[in-house]
């Protein structure tokens, strides 16, 4: 079962987030500041961290900065009452993966948690094989019939995501959320452009093809 660490000094909020996430099948531990969160990370493994910014003893910025400086790449979602752009920028510069502003919609929080965990899983697995075609995450390389091609990051992640679930239909919005992130304001039709480029590159591939589900989205099909 996936484990989530919540660093939030507001006891009621911490309990609410814990309750909602446990209802969705996660194991949860709550702490009240960044120092306690670092101690928890030393003693156990967590798949994802939800951290407030304004906390006593050690705030969220410093917590995430120390976490990243130690080489820890666990996904972090920051939750804060601050909504100024500079605060958001500081959060991302410290190493945060996603950002939500209070008051929190807990259903949206669960969606964001799910998406962050899926992206982390894609990165951790590093390699995907479909037929005789190999997708290497570390180098953004696709190897087929003895030839290799390095893809732009977004194209690679799109193909990697769909190839991980052959036959599964992904809507444009799902792909935007998972590859570009929930906070991205790009037009979902950006996905169409990237899919078109992938089709051109792998038109002659004998292991898979990208199929358009009209009015719905896309899927990768094994041949």
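Sequence proposed for the structure above (223 residues):
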């Amino acid at each position: 079962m996936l484990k989530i660490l919540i660093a939030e000094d507001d006891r009621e909020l911490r309990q609410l987030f814990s309750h909602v996430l446990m209802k969705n099948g996660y194991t949860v531990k709550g702490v009240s500041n960044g120092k306690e969160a670092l101690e928890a990370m030393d003693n156990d493994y967590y798949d994802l961290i939800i951290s407030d910014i304004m906390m006593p003893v050690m705030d969220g910025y410093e917590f995430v900065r120390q976490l990243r400086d130690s080489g820890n790449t666990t996904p972090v979602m920051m939750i804060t009452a601050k909504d100024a752009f500079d605060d958001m920028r500081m959060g991302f510069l410290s190493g945060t993966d996603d950002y939500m502003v209070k008051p929190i919609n807990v259903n949206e929080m669960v969606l964001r948690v799910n998406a962050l965990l899926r992206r982390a899983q894609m990165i951790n697995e590093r390699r995907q094989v479909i037929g005789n075609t190999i997708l290497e995450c570390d180098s953004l390389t696709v190897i087929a019939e003895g030839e290799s091609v390095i893809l732009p990051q977004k194209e690679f992640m799109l193909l990697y995501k769909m190839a991980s679930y052959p036959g599964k239909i992904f809507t444009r919005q799902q792909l935007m959320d998972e590859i570009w992130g929930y906070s991205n304001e790009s037009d979902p039709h950006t996905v169409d452009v990237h899919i078109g480029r992938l089709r051109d590159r792998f038109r002659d591939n004998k292991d898979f093809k990208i199929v358009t589900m009209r009015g719905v989205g896309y899927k990768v099909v094994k041949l």
